[in-house]
User: What shape does this take?
Amino acid sequence: MSISIQTTSSDSGIGEDIILRETDTTRLLFRPELVNNQHNSDASVKGCFIFQKKKKRIYG
Assistant: This one.
């Protein structure tokens, strides 16, 4: 699996969304951010989890 990173500054970049779980009406994403953490080099990835829900389709 490869992820493209868009540079936002000389010390950070944002990765493309990673779909962790998906159904017909919902999905769970992780949006990674790579940072140059000068105080702790082991903590160079931050990110957020995003839960998205689609509206139900109404037929008729």
Observations:
- The chain has a mean pLDDT of 90.
